[in-house]
Each structure stands twice: as structure tokens, then as C-alpha cells.
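> call design_seq(struct)
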């Protein structure tokens, strides 16, 4: 049996990670040999999980990196709301606030 707290963390993380993975897939749209790689590392001592999503798409310009976590910041025209990353960031911060590491 899984506890309600675990299910809530799982749902939140699923939403946030899905947002990031969808961005990686979108970024590779025009690539012939598109590649999205997801690495999960469990850091037992720190009770942390590192999830790295990498793609070989267009990349993000240095000057845009600060902006991409702002609401409505999107380069996808009508296909993107520009809410994916700010919402993902908020989800992760809230989850961490509600379930601090013990
Ligand atoms: N992996 C990536 N490669 C290149 N650019 C990215 C990547 N991830 C995010 N971006 C840039 O950051 C912008 C904001 O991403 P965000 O997820 O917040 O919104 P979106 O993907 O445009 O819209 P939505 O999430 O609603 O579909 C994207 O429009 C894109 O320009
Ligand atoms: Mg997105």
C-alpha cells in the first residue's frame, strides 16, 4: 500500500518532469537523428533524486536562459503557452516546501 503523501509527490513530479521532457522532444522536432536522454540518479546519502533531461535540439541561447522560467515566455507561437517551465518550477518548489527532507 502507498501512502497519500507519496501519491501526491508522485503526481507532482510526474507533471513537472513531463513538461520538461515535452520541451526536449519539441526542441528536437527538426532534427533527423533526434535524441532525448533521461538520466535518473538516486543520491542515497542526501536522500535526493537527480533527474537530467538532455536533448540534441536547437539549444537555448545564453541570453534566454534567465527568461524561460517567466510566465508566457514561449518561442512556439500558438503551440506554446509559455507556462510549462514556470508551472514545473512552482510544483517542485511547493512539493519541497510541503515535504521537506527529514
Ligand atoms: N529543451 C529545450 N530546448 C530549447 N528550448 C527550450 C527547451 N526547453 C524550453 N525551451 C524554451 O523555453 C520556452 C518556455 O518553455 P515552457 O515549457 O515554459 O513553454 P512552452 O513549451 O513554450 O509552452 P507549453 O509548455 O505551454 O507547451 C520554450 O518556448 C522554448 O523556447
Ligand atoms: Mg513546455
Amino acid at each position: 500500500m502507498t501512502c497519500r503523501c507519496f501519491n501526491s509527490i508522485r503526481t507532482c513530479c510526474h507533471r513537472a518532469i513531463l513538461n520538461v521532457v515535452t520541451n526536449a522532444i519539441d526542441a528536437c522536432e527538426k532534427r533527423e537523428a533526434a535524441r532525448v536522454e533521461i538520466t535518473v540518479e538516486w543520491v542515497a546519502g542526501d536522500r535526493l533524486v537527480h533527474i537530467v533531461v538532455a536533448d540534441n535540439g536547437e539549444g537555448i541561447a545564453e541570453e534566454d536562459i534567465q527568461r524561460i522560467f517567466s510566465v508566457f515566455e514561449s518561442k512556439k507561437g500558438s503551440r506554446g503557452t509559455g507556462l510549462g517551465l514556470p508551472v514545473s518550477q512552482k510544483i517542485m518548489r511547493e512539493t519541497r516546501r510541503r515535504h521537506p527532507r527529514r
